[in-house]
C-alpha cells in the first residue's frame, strides 16, 4: 500500500483509492491523479484494496477488474459498504459488455478499457450522473475487439485451447495461431 504525496491544497473530499496489480501503471496513474488534486492511496491486490477501503473509505476509486489475487468487484463491494456515495471507475484490459454490466451492477460509475489515461479517468470521476461520456477518441479496432474476446474466453476456460476452440466454434489450430500473435492495435 502506497500513499502518493499530493499538493497541500488537497480537499479531504478528494481521497482516491487506486487498485491495480500492474506496478508501473499504478505508479504512473497515482502521480498523474495526485497532480490533479487527489489524495491517492494505491494498492496492488484485492486484499490490500479491501483493507484500505475499510480503514480509510475513499471518496473516489479506480480499480482494475482482474487482479492477481482475485476480482476487483470485491473491492468495489467493500467500498460501497463503507461509502455508498463513492464514485468508482473500473479499468480492464478485457473490455466487453458482460464485464461492464457486472461492474455497473456492483456499483461502479463507469467502465474504461485499458490503456486509459489520467485525463479519461479524471473526466469520468468528475462527470455528473446526467452527463453522457464523450465517445472515445481512439476506439478499439474490430480486430482488437475480436482478439480481446477470444483471449477472454481463453482465460475463462482456464487457458484450455481445446475447450476454448469448442466454445468459440473454431478450429483448434486457428485458435492457436491467433493466440500466438500479438494483440492488434
From TrEMBL:
Gene3D superfamilies: 3.40.50.2300, Homeodomain-like. GO terms for molecular function: phosphorelay response regulator activity; transcription cis-regulatory region binding. Residues 15-129 form the Response regulatory domain. GO terms for cellular component: cytosol; protein-DNA complex. PROSITE patterns: RESPONSE_REGULATORY (PS50110). It holds the Pfam family Response_reg. Keywords: DNA-binding, Phosphoprotein. The modification 4-aspartylphosphate is found at residue 64. GO terms for biological process: regulation of DNA-templated transcription. NCBIfam families: ActR_PrrA_rreg (NF033791). This is Two-component system response regulator.
